[in-house]
User: Fold this.
Amino acid sequence: MAKTPAAGRRTRSSGRASWLAGLVLGGLGGFLLLVVPPGGLLLVVVAAVLVVRRGEALPGLGGVLVGVGVVWAFFLGRTWLTCTAEVGCFTPTIDAFLAIGLGLLAIGVALSILSVVRALREKRRTGLQ
Assistant:
């Protein structure tokens, strides 16, 4: 939880808030990357910058990558499964994008777990519960 700021100073968002903001913005950006790639890329970059500047960087970036990865894995995975199961459907270049989505998801999960471990270590070190 963020502490009360001194007069005129801003506080940083907590790790949970940064992760959740990153997840939502990453999910929206991931969807836009599939529909309108330049707009999606812009939203993902802006989301990453915002969560790093306004909150804790590691959980925020983890949330952005999980959001993009989940959206890509879901939509591209569903398309891949549907097109391989039906006759006449062909998706020649979707495998690489599906692998990228799964890779982003895996990196985002790893960053999220790392941020939780760091927060627990910090709590234990400072004696907070």
